[in-house]
Each structure stands twice: as structure tokens, then as C-alpha cells.
């Protein structure tokens, strides 16, 4: 078989050289993204530290606000922006530059519309929390933090899509450098606003807003100055009608992508709420906070791997190379299992010492240590599950991931967690056994879809349709011509299985 034909046939066994090359390609993208995610995590830790410096009331109010804004705002924006992954990555693979630029504009518009109801929720945080029976003083402090965080919504409508836009083009190191510079200034900003100027809680919120704004300015500067010739964003090159015309197709990818991410993200918040109903709620909630921070830290690696394999799979499918797309998916899943085993190992070995990094309270340390091995096993499922979701997004099938997450976390994980923790009185560890059940169900389901039910040649042809006709910038008479051209494209497949662009 000719070499050009082999890239379209996904059934041949890869050589060791091909696996090594894919590992280099994948981790060349994933390591900078992992570093960027860690920097974002550090930024959040710095904010919490400065809130703690102000006092327990400020810390409690800030923590309540951070949880509320994560659930109602940031998770939604990140989830919607992830719907851009298959379009941008496949457009880049097929060298459809117009679609790449146009999709970015469409996603920014979608997020601008999304932040309107989110803003209304943030403005009314105090009313909502008081209605739910929260403490008035803590709620008032949380409302203050939330109000001063409002500008961050506007920043994220550009920041989140731009991250996907750059990652889909294998541009990851510049994002890491931009994040590093912004986070370096995050500590001085907090010190200036909180300590020197004495603004307090609003100062912590304003510092976070300014840090994200700095990230955005640096990334936009990179695109428009350093990579202007290679990465032209034709902003406003088409009419507003053309931007609106493709919103429906993009929303079909964005909404299930959002649900898939939010359903998992929200479940961890539900665990925190359920911990508050156990026999010793103060102890349980404190231990839950430490464990969630730990799992958030571990999540930075599989999250980066998922984003990068989504880009790799999308690039190769867009280029008409299903064999390479499958290879990227298999290599990423192999890496995910290795990362999962590493997490199991260190959580078992360091379970006693790890809790001591967060607290000196012996009962809390003992409770955290008792659950750490269970959480490690959860990561053994979470790593391939998260990576698998990235593969599904790269193949433009986020709706499958959303359905699996819904079934696994809410129809399996939640009943198991509630049943063990409350009905069978297992207590705190029962909640985490519920998470383990959810992760196992999720991982098995996604692996079945990716390994057994995915026809990579068919996905390559679907990618041609996605980038060549349904999501293209064609309109009017040009659209009719594109439809005729698409029919002819099905008959003019070249040697490597790629259908040439004619739109």
C-alpha cells in the first residue's frame, strides 16, 4: 500500500518510531499547558491566602463567592469555549483559515450573550444566598467580592476562546509565558491593593480581574504583533449576518461540551454540600476542602492532556489522516493510565504527610489520610475519562461525553454516595466511594466509545463536512456553489483520503 493511502487507513499497527514521534508531539503541547494550568491554580491559592490574611469572615465570604462564581460563571464559560475545539482544530488541519477566524468571532459572541444572565446571578448573589439560609455577614462579604469580580466575565469572553484558538494551532508555549508573566504580577497587585491601599476584599477581587486582563492583553499582543503574518484574525472581515448565521451549528457543539464539563465540575460542589450534613459537618467540610484542592491540583495534567489530544485528533482528522488521529488518541490514553497509576501511588504513600501541609488539626488530618487512597483510585479513572472526553471533543462528539457524565455522576455516583454515606452510615468515605463509582462508570463508558465504537475513517469524512460545508463562511450564491462542489468532492478523494477544499 502506498504511503499516502496508509494515513487514511486506521487499522494498521503503529511502529515504535511513530509512537515516539506522537509522544513528542503531544507532550510538546501538553507540558506548557500543564504549566499554565498550574500557574492559574497558584493564582487562586494566592487570592485565598490574602483573603485569609484579612480575617476569617473575609476568608469565608471570599470562599463562598469563589465557589458561587465557579459554578455559575467560570465553569459555563470554559465549557462553552471548549465547543470551539473540534471546529478550530479541524479547520487548522484542513487549512481553512477563514473558518478558524470566523469560529473565534462566533464563540466570542456566544460568550457575550452568556454573560448577561450570569451577571444577573452575580449581582443578586446576596439575595440568593440569604434565601438559601446562609449567614448574613458571610453573604454580605461574598456579595462584595462577587460585584468586584464582574469585569472578569467580560475578560473571559475573549480569554477562553483565544486559549482554544491558540491551542488548536499547537501554540502552547506562548500561552505559558503570558500566564507566567501575569501571575508574577498577581502577588504585587494583591499586596498593593490589599496591604498598602487597604482596600480589603474588593482588592483581592480586583487583583484577580487585573491578572486575567494582563493574560488577555499579552496573548492578544502575541497574536497581533509576533504572529501577525502566520495567524491573522480577520476580525470584522465578514458581515455580522455571516457571524450570526453559523451560531446554530457552533452551539450544537458548545452546549454539550459545556454540559459535559459542568456536570463533573458541579458534582464536586455537591460533595461539599453533602459533607455538611454528616455527623461532624465542620470536620467533614474542612477535609473535603483539602481533598478538592488536591484533586484540582492533580486535574491540571489530565486537563492539559485532554485539551491537547483534542487539538491533535482534530488537526489530523481535518487533514484527512484518520490513522494519525487514532494514533494520537491511543497514545494519549496510554499516557492517561500512566498518570493515573502515578497518582494512586503517591496518594497511598504520602497520605499522612500530605494532610499535614494544609492543617495541624489531627482529626482533620486523620480523615483526609483515610480517604486519600480512595481519591487516588478515583484519579485512575478520572485521567482516562478526562482524556477520552478530549478525544470526543476532537471528533466533534461532545454530546456523547455529556450523556456519559450525566449518567455516571448523577445516576450512579450520587445514589452510591448518598446510600453509603447516610443510609448505610459509612460516613465521610462513603461520599468518595460514590465519586469512585462515578469515575469507573464514566471511564469504562468513554473507553468503550473511543476504542470500540469509533470509526476513524468515517470521522475523517465527517471532519471534511464540518470544515468544508456546514460550518464554512459560504453564503448566498457562494453557498449554492459550495453545495455543488461538496457533491463533487465525494467523488474526488485524493490519494491520502483528503478531500481538497473548494469553498
TrEMBL record:
Lineage: Eukaryota, Viridiplantae, Streptophyta, Embryophyta, Tracheophyta
Main localization category: membrane
Homology family: Belongs to the multi antimicrobial extrusion (MATE) (TC 2.A.66.1) family.
Topology relative to the membrane: Multi-pass membrane protein
Signal peptide: none
Molecular-function GO term, any one: xenobiotic transmembrane transporter activity
Keywords annotated in UniProt: Membrane, Transmembrane, Transmembrane helix
Provenance organism: Quillaja saponaria
Protein name in the entry: Protein DETOXIFICATION
